[in-house]
């Protein structure tokens, strides 16, 4: 879901794009920022070479499939692993999650912002805290707008909202929570558009419970270097190794039985040569 895009960027319509892989989003983002010339097959974006986006905000929402927003461009994503864009440059880089706000100088400003006149109606404490951090970040960006006008490199904002993950809510409470998330994302998008002169990308990635589980599992496997053998050739490989092992065991057994039943006086050439006496002339 692309909430805001610069006018200099043109992306294909969702109906013309096949189902995208979550793992391809970093490459798409790098291409949109002009940091990479590589493009994802089926997603051909057009941009102005002389007017590149100066900021990108990737908002990851765990626990739902979508924000049900009809006013923005929405694409279907395939259920695979997802990694936020990770690019290391000398610029603003801010992360917002359930642990708080961290990153460069703007993150320090955001932590000092006071929440005023923010209507967050959800009863989920964790979600409320995350959304308050998003509002703090938006207020910090708005208060430091003049600073970003001098920025030449693209700034990256990573926001993770996981307060809905694992929660069983009725339709009313879920609608309230989704509405609160939409309000927070829209406020962040408006602050970025104002601070960066409409040269900011705001992207929302909604990941359901299944995708969250798969992502966590893949993350643990990578960290622990543990992988599950899932090759479709397993029966054939097993048959090959089983045949080799059985053949080797039979060969060793046949050799051992043959050596044990050997009669040195009849079967050993060396024994006969060493024991045969020379005849006298």
From TrEMBL:
Any one GO biological process: positive regulation of Wnt signaling pathway
Database matches in Pfam families: Renin_r (PF07850)
InterPro entries on file: Renin_r_C, Renin_rcpt
Gene Ontology annotations for the cellular component aspect, listed alphabetically: external side of plasma membrane
Molecular function via GO: signaling receptor activity
Keywords assigned by UniProt, alphabetized: Membrane, Transmembrane, Transmembrane helix
Domain of life: Eukaryota
Domain Renin receptor-like C-terminal transmembrane spanning segment: 221-280
Chain ranges passing through the membrane: 234-257
PANTHER family: RENIN RECEPTOR
Name of the protein described by the UniProt record: Renin receptor
